[in-house]
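Continuing the batch. This is chain 6 of the set; chains 1 through 5 are on the previous pages. Same settings as before, nothing changed between runs. Recording input and output for traceability.
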Amino acid sequence: MFPNPIIAEVTRGGIVESRHAGAFAVADANGEIVMAAGDIGRPVYPRSAIKALQCLAVIESGAADRFGFTPEEIALCCASHGGEADHVRVARAMLARVGVAEDAYECGAHWPGDHAAHDAAVRAMDKPLAVFNNCSGKHAGMLALARQLGLNERNYTSRDHPVQRAIASAIGSLCEEDLGAAPCGIDGCSVPTWALPLRSLARGFAKLAAPDHAAGQRIFAAARAHPFMIAGTNRFDTVLMTKVPRAFVKTGAEGVYCGAVTHAGLGFALKCDDGATRAAEVAIASLLASLECWTAAERASLRELSHSHLHNWREIEVGEVRAAIEE
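Output for chain 6:
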């Protein structure tokens, strides 16, 4: 097996200080891999990068309609948010509509990831809340799915619970993989996470982007209308989708990105070998910029995001993180 190529570099003082290797795949509407680099057949854990796929069962089961989830709420189902006030507001509105209390959450509690929200929460309370968890929107959707299936929501995060089985079925069908045979771990928010090849993830997102995939179109439209819900203030996913609304991108822990270009019928997946978010961000922007499906203004925005400046504690620019994917 050949090593994966370099997808991002870090510079300082005019030379390359660090390099990040990785792999990526882009699939078209027919499931053909139209662009790839590295080992796209090795299973990787996509983590939160596939929250849009996890949301499928919430929509296709009828739960989203039964509980009247708005586009803003569907976007939060697909989010890794910063726990800002609007994220908390929307998550609580979802729980209220489903009729469950916050103590039904099994995602665990942590302080908001957003700095301002974190400081405000620490001043206001002694311990964090589960609704601050970056996955609280996804879990609100899962609680809605449990109610829709007529089930007790207790242990809804268990791999054997019908909620997780329904989600696994949706993911497996879309990615054309047998999740029963796939490596399975436990994610940071306690739900199952299955390891899948990048090529299968890219194909799954391409299928989700198909014009006749009603649930997929609903998810992407919600994210396009409410990119703030997907991440938050100054967060990369929100920034990219605000600048280029026709792109859907979603990060996952350990340097993963998945998403789709709906107008071009493309799906993509990327993994940075060492799990570096800083590398995955610039690499996914560069990968998208290399696709022949953008206006000049969209491509310029993507190229701008394919590098980020590094500053020291005195705000002196000392280098940059830049993509190494050729256009």
